[in-house]
Here is the input.
Amino acid sequence: MTIKESILDYIKKNKYFSLRSLVKNKKIDIRLAKNYLLTFKKQGIIFEAGRGVYTTLKREFQIFSVSRVETIARLLKKDFPFADFIIWDTRQLQSLYHHTQAHYLTFIETGKELLYPFSEAVSKNYRDVFIEKRSRNFFKKLSISSNPVVVRKMVRRSPHKGIMASLEKILVDMFVDLNLYRYMSEADYWQIWRELCLQYKINIGTVAGYSRRRKCFKALFLQLIENDILTDMTFGAYFDEVAKVIKKQ
Here is the structure.
């Protein structure tokens, strides 16, 4: 078997893999490995999934449309034509949930100066609209059963496509919100990751960058490791980074 055939065989057996794991497993020069990976990328055999991470999965998860998101988006675009905002709904990943959600939330993110104007505009058409406050009292009083709309400050450089949140952003935001809004169980959250990694391309680099800005990189990646979703084999560079952070503690 030639070096090229050996690398292709390795790629076929791993939906996600890192440059480091390939070099280590096949015992080849890193420059030679990079050249082959560049060729395979141009041929559409593999795709980038972050720094030093590749995947054979081309398909991207399609975040399906939700009528309430579309209605609110139209309203805000009409009233605030030049405003920047991102909107997403917990039902947009519904097809990946292990259990059907009885209740849901819609999140609208914008600049600090537009939180109140946005809240007032949306309140004209929806009853339970709240401006997020990072306090125990806020989360304690908020009732998920009313399917609320939450307006909150946009995190800088949030990954998005137009006004819609990207998959990577939703995954990080869900992790941060997990024990605050409690709209899903931890088991269901990690199941979403497992389903995605089996079928769809996730840009782990985007997840890493955004999780740093949301100050949850260590917590998220540590739990990805503990749940056997992120491994040294698949996400070598990020695995090492988490290990270094933990070692410093």
Observations:
- The first strand starts at residue 16 and ends at 18.
